[in-house]
């Protein structure tokens, strides 16, 4: 589960409080709707200890705000751009990276999608097992996953093209905008902190 990295990515928008981050995660990555609010706060505590996030003031009603440290910002950018991608075998991780990156700053999308495509199309050099055992079923599952993931990344590329004209990813492309925090009040929470706060 990439909740840690997803929170770092979301925090590239600026300081936010815990319940706000939970709401943003669930909105930006709907497959994470079952993420527990306590997991968000526990993850934030670990990110503070790791030096990737720091407490930066509080809301008008006393909730602590969390912000990225320079190291946390670099970790987030590396994750969003695919620079740290070493495996493409986890479907939830694929969804996390693509959906979070798409919802934050479109400039990450080309490098991230490209990194996944490279990993998914690399030949492992291992012959496909024959027979009817577990290894054969696993190889078949991996092949199906690879096909499905590449097909979905094709959908992502079409979405990118439809959002930005005929951008082919080979040029600088159009000016792509960053997306801010939701102005909606999180469930059971306080209003969101504005992007420019």
How would you describe this structure to a colleague?
With 197 residues, the protein is mainly α. It has a single domain, classed as Orthogonal Bundle (Arc Repressor Mutant, subunit A). Helix content is 51%, strand content 6%. The chain has 7 helices and 2 strands, in the order αααββαααα. The protein has a two-stranded antiparallel sheet. A hairpin with a 5-residue loop joins strand 1 and strand 2 (64-68). The two termini are 30 Å apart. The model is unreliable at 169-178 (pLDDT under 50).
CATH-level-4 superfamily name = Winged helix-like DNA-binding domain superfamily/Winged helix DNA-binding domain
Uncertain segments are 169-178
Q: Give the terminus-to-terminus CA distance.
A: 30 Å
Mean pLDDT: 84
- Provide the CATH top-level class: Mainly Alpha
Strand content: 5-15%
SS element count, helices: 7
Radius of gyration: 19 Å
DSSP strand count: 2
> What percent of the residues sit in helical stretches (DSSP H or I)?
40-55%
Q: What is the CATH topology classification name? A: Arc Repressor Mutant, subunit A
Element string (H = helix, E = strand): HHHEEHHHH
Kindly give the count of domains: 1
CATH architecture: Orthogonal Bundle
Q: Helices and strands: which structural class?
A: mainly alpha
Strand order of the largest sheet: 1-2
Shape: elongated
Largest sheet: 2 strands, antiparallel
Pfam families: PadR
Region (Disordered): 178-197
InterPro entries: Tscrpt_reg_PadR_N, WH-like_DNA-bd_sf, WH_DNA-bd_sf
Keywords: DNA-binding
